[in-house]
C-alpha cells in the first residue's frame, strides 16, 4: 500500500483486499493472462470496483439507481482514463437493461441485503450470466452484526438480530454462511468459495493504520490469513461468495 494514500484509504484497502485476491485469477490482475470479459456490476455506485476492473481491459457496465453515484462514476472513470458504461436502474429491472446470457462476470456487492426476494434476485443474475460465468456475491453477515450491537451496548438490538432473516432498516437483511450458500444453490449456482471479509478491519481504529508504520500491510496479511478459516468466519462483517453458472 502506498504511503501517499489519504487517511482512511488504508482501512478501505484492507476491507477489500481479500475480495480482489479472490477475483484476481478471473480478471487477470497483476500480469495474469485473462480474456476480455463482459462484466456487469450491480449497485456499483461510484465505481470503486468497476473502474479498476475496466483498467484491466474488461468491458464493464454499472447498474445503479442513484444518478449522483453514476455521475461520480463518470468522473472517476475519466480520471482513470477508462470507459465504463453507466445505466440507471436496479436489480428488479435488470432484465430490461441486460440481455440473457450477456455477462461473463457479475459483481453483486452489498445489494442482496435490500432486495425484497433474495432468491428471485439471484435467479435473475443467473439468467444474465453466460453458461460457465461467475458471480461475485458480497453480503452482510449476521453474526458479526449481533456482536457489534452487543459491544456497543445495544443489547436489545443484538437480541432482535439473532434470528432475523428479514430486510429491515437501512442495512437491510443479513445472512449466515449456510443461508447464503443455500440461496445460491437454489438459484442453480455452484458455490466455489466462501471468504470472510473484514474480520478485523472494522475493529481496528483508522488512526492506527494512518500513523503506525507497516500496520496497514500487516492488517491485510492478517485478513488474508483468516479469510477461509471456519472458526473466524462468524466474526466477518461480510461474506464473499464466488459461484458459477453450470455450463
What does this structure look like?
The chain has 247 residues and is α/β, with parallel strands linked by helices. The chain has a domain of 160 residues: 3-Layer(aba) Sandwich (Rossmann fold), CATH 3.40.50.150. It is built from ten helices and seven strands. A seven-stranded mixed β-sheet has the order 3-2-1-4-5-7-6, sandwiched between helices. Helix 2 links the parallel strand 1 and strand 2. Helix 1 packs across helix 10 and helix 6 runs antiparallel to helix 7. The longest helix is centred in the first third of the chain and has 19 residues. The N terminus is likely disordered.
**What sequence of helices (H) and strands (E) makes up the elements?**
HEHEHEHEHEHHHEHHE
- β-strand percent reads 15-25%
Helix segment count? 10
**Under the CATH scheme, which architecture of the domain at 9-43 and 90-140 and 171-244 would be assigned?**
3-Layer(aba) Sandwich
The CATH topology of the domain at 9-43 and 90-140 and 171-244:
Rossmann fold
Order of strands in the sheet with most strands:
3-2-1-4-5-7-6
Q: How would you name the CATH homologous superfamily of the domain at 9-43 and 90-140 and 171-244?
A: Vaccinia Virus protein VP39
Over the alpha carbons, how many angstroms does the gyration radius reach? Answer: 18 Å
* The CATH top-level class label of the domain at 9-43 and 90-140 and 171-244: Alpha Beta
What are the low-pLDDT stretches, counting only 5+ consecutive residues below 50? 1-10
Q: Which secondary-structure class do the elements indicate?
A: alpha/beta
Secondary structure tally: strands: 7
Largest sheet: 7 strands, mixed
Principal-axes geometry comes out as globular
Question: How helical, in percent, are the residues?
Answer: 40-55%
Mean pLDDT: 87
Give the end-to-end Cα distance, rounded to a whole number of Å. 38 Å
Amino acid at each position: 500500500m502506498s504511503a501517499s494514500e489519504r487517511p482512511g484509504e488504508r482501512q478501505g484497502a484492507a476491507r477489500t483486499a481479500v475480495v480482489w485476491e479472490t477475483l484476481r485469477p478471473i480478471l487477470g490482475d497483476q500480469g495474469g493472462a485473462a480474456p476480455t470479459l463482459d462484466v456487469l456490476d450491480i449497485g456499483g455506485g461510484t465505481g470503486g470496483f468497476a473502474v479498476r476492473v475496466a483498467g484491466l481491459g474488461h468491458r464493464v457496465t454499472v447498474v445503479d439507481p442513484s444518478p449522483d453515484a453514476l455521475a461520480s462514476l463518470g468522473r472517476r472513470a475519466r480520471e482513470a482514463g477508462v470507459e465504463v458504461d453507466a445505466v440507471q436502474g436496479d436489480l428488479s429491472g435488470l432484465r430490461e437493461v441486460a440481455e440473457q446470457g450477456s455477462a461473463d462476470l457479475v459483481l453483486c456487492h452489498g445489494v442482496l441485503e435490500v432486495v425484497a426476494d433474495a432468491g428471485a434476485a439471484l435467479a435473475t443474475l443467473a439468467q444474465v450470466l453466460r453458461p460457465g460465468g461467475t458471480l461475485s456475491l458480497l453480503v452482510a453477515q449476521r453474526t458479526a452484526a449481533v456482536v457489534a450491537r452487543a459491544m456497543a451496548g445495544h443489547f436489545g438490538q443484538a437480541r432482535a438480530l439473532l434470528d432475523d432473516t428479514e430486510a429491515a432498516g437501512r442495512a437491510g437483511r443479513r445472512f449466515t454462511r449456510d443461508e447464503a450458500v443455500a440461496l445460491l444453490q437454489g438459484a442453480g449456482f455452484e458455490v466455489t468459495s466462501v471468504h470472510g471479509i473484514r474480520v478485523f478491519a472494522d475493529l481496528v481504529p483508522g488512526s492506527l493504520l494512518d500513523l503506525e508504520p507497516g500496520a496497514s500491510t500487516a492488517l491485510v496479511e492478517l485478513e488474508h490469513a483468516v479469510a477461509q478459516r471456519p472458526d473466524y468466519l462468524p466474526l466477518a462483517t461480510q461474506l464473499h461468495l464466488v459461484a458459477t453458472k453450470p455450463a
